């Protein structure tokens, strides 16, 4: 098969981790008889520098016309003082919105070999961490009305947290469907003791749950959830939550895996088109030094093969190669521990390719 892939490598370490991802995918193509055709487009700070805007229409058009999108990372200190709608992050949010990618899957798994890199006490993670955070991605305060106004306390600013029944229903169904293929346990995270939007959210989750009697459902307030994640990480399976809560909890969950450099993500909508990106940011401080961890991006490539193209064996091949490389003792700086062999970004990519 031939697949058309739009590549938004972006800023900072984005291009260097993406380079390794593409090398891995090309090797998979060779091995399994697929061709991947890449169209590189600009998004984020590099697009601001070239076109004066973070998300040019051409980038949206190319992404829409592709079978899937790979994204590196966007942002950097150069663009930090720009107004909200001109910032590099607009590229990410704009693509999520334009492509209708409302479901963000962030799997946090702790590889056995990385137990030393996990900051939690060994006894807390000895049963293995395997959490799928299902984050709503095109609603909530990220996309709600925002603005400024004068008040008697001075200037005020607001971002409206709003969720509709349909928005909650479709993300909840995604979470239950995923749970059915895993350990059949969904934890809903909201703040229904305080927020009206969470009260609607919870009532829709309870309604949808009736269609999945085989899946266990429980609920946590977000403050409590952030605590329980640290206290009993091995007891979670699928977490379903809104945009802002999911943003925060997925960074927290990333630490269970040893480093945010290990966490891939998939953003999905109704069709097979998805966008795949590491959860980490552009890390401008280490950009261009060949020390970034490419594993999160390479695992995002594996998620693309699985969720957009249905290539399960190919995806597993990449995941197994990553496990092998870690078992063989190779580490980038972010997951380094005593007695291991430290390697750079390019070398890590090469070692993974050798194990495909
Ligand atoms: C993420 C990032 C983005 C988000 C930023 C860069 C806009 O933190 O993908 O988690 O908040 O969604
Ligand atoms: Mn985030």
Looking at the structure, the CATH topology of the largest domain is Isopropylmalate Dehydrogenase
Span between N and C termini? 19 Å
CATH architecture of the largest domain: 3-Layer(aba) Sandwich
Q: Please, what is the CATH homologous superfamily of the largest domain?
A: Isopropylmalate Dehydrogenase
Radius of gyration: 20 Å
- What is the CATH class name of the largest domain? Alpha Beta
Taken as a percent bin, the fraction of beta residues is 15-25%
Helix segment tally: 12
- What is the N-to-C order of secondary-structure elements (H for helix, E for strand)? EHEHHEHEHEEEHEHEHEHEEHHEEH
Number of strands: 14
Q: What is the residue-mean pLDDT, rounded to a whole number? A: 97
In total, how many domains does the architecture comprise? 2
Strand order within the widest beta sheet:
2-1-3-12-11-4-5-10-8-9
Task: Flag low-confidence runs.
Answer: none
Structural description of this entry:
It is a single chain. The chain has 356 residues and is of the alpha/beta class. Helices cover 40% and strands 22% of the residues. The strands form three sheets. Strands 2-1-3-12-11-4-5-10-8-9 form a ten-stranded mixed β-sheet, sandwiched between helices. A two-stranded antiparallel sheet has the order 6-7. The protein is globular, with a radius of gyration of 20 Å. The two termini are 19 Å apart. The structure holds 3-isopropylmalic acid and manganese (II) ion. The site of manganese (II) ion has 2 residues, from helix 9.
